Structure formats: C-alpha cells, structure tokens
Amino acid sequence: MIKLNFCLKSIGLVLLIALLTVPNIEAGKIQLSEGTEVKVSFGLDQKLTSARLMKDLPLPIVLAEAVVIGGKTVIEEGAVGQAKILELKPASKAGKPGYLKIGFVELEPKGEYETAEGAKIPLTGEIEAKGKGRKLLSYLFIFGLFIKGSQAELPAGEIYTAKVAENIMLESE
C-alpha cells in the first residue's frame, strides 16, 4: 500500500512538472517565452564592415530558421526584423583596429500566428567584431603613423542567435 501511494505521488509530481514545462498553448494562442532563441542573418549580400557603416544605423535581419513551439510553426522562416549598430570605430592610423557592435531590436511575425494589434516581437542580444591591430608594425617603421589597423567585419550569410526579450502572446488568425 505504501509503495502504491508513493508511486501515485511520484506520477503526479512528474505530470505537474511536465505541465509546467510545456509551452503555454491554448486554442489559437501560443506564448512565445522570454529567452526563446531565434536564428537570424542580415538581409544583405555583402559583409558588414566598420569602414562603411554609421552608429545607430538600422540593419535589416531575416529569420534563418522557423520558430517551432509544441510542434507548431509560430514564426515562419524569412520573417523580417531589424538590428541596430550600437558602437562603431573605424580602423585608424597608428595601427588601431576597427570595432563593430550590433544589437538585435525586433522581429515581425510571419505566418499563421500574429501578435496583438500587429506589434513586433522585441529581441535582445548583441554581436561584436574587432579588426586586427598593427601597432607594432606602425612603431617599427618611420612611416608607421600612416599604417591603419584592419576593419571589423561580419561576413555575409552568417547566422547569429538572438533571444526574445519578453513574453509575447501570439494568436492564430
């Protein structure tokens, strides 16, 4: 009798844990939880470089992999969004390298599910790139002050991970 009672309690505990960890899926509604990872790439065919960009410049991003929750595709691949240049330092003379820091901003839902009132999904996450310095080379030669470091670059087509910034409820149409 004690073993049976213990088994029933154990099963109940396992079911409770399972219910708490399953995504919140109601009829036509799915919660996209804060911290959900999304794979994005920049919607550009050329590499991003610290030589050609400006601070606060918005950059287009594209969802590289569909977001699937509970076996349902919540956001389809190809959804568009935006990132922003947070910090930028072009390479300069005396061998100083370039630096580039980009933050992910938002993603527009695409597919069967939409946010309330057409709101965008806020994202969080940053990526950085740093060029190579050439300070030693600039000090060794008399004309070293004219030698620049290399620019910071992010290659075209690379896939990056951003995260959903807050819990968002999505509804099917």
Question: Could you characterize what this model shows?
Answer:
The protein is an alpha+beta fold. It has a single domain, classed as Lipocalin (Beta Barrel), CATH 2.40.128. The chain is 15% helix and 40% strand. The chain has 2 helices and 15 strands. The strands form 4 sheets. The chain has a 6-stranded antiparallel beta barrel with strand order 3-5-8-9-11-14. The chain has a 4-stranded antiparallel β-sheet with strand order 1-2-15-10, with no helix packed on it. It has a two-stranded antiparallel sheet with strand order 4-13. Strand 1 (25-26) and strand 2 form a beta hairpin. The longest helix has 20 residues, at 2-21. The relative contact order is 0.23. Mean pLDDT is 80; it is low at 15-26.
List strands and helices in order, with pairings.
Layout (H helix, E strand, L loop, with lengths): L1 H20 L3 E2 L2 E4 L4 E6 L5 E2 L8 E6 L3 E3 L2 E4 L4 E10 L9 E9 L5 E3 L5 E4 L1 E5 L4 H6 L12 E2 L5 E5 L3 E5 L1
Antiparallel strand pairs: 1-2, 2-15, 3-5, 3-14, 4-13, 5-8, 6-7, 8-9, 9-11, 9-12, 10-15, 11-14
CATH topology: Lipocalin
Tally of separate helices: 2
Question: What is the string of helix and strand elements?
Answer: HEEEEEEEEEEEEHEEE
Please identify the top-level CATH class.
Answer: Mainly Beta
Q: Which architecture name does CATH use?
A: Beta Barrel
Low-confidence stretches: 15-26
Largest sheet: 6 strands, antiparallel, barrel
Summed up, the domain count is 1
Name the shape in a single word: elongated
Order of strands in the sheet with most strands: 3-5-8-9-11-14
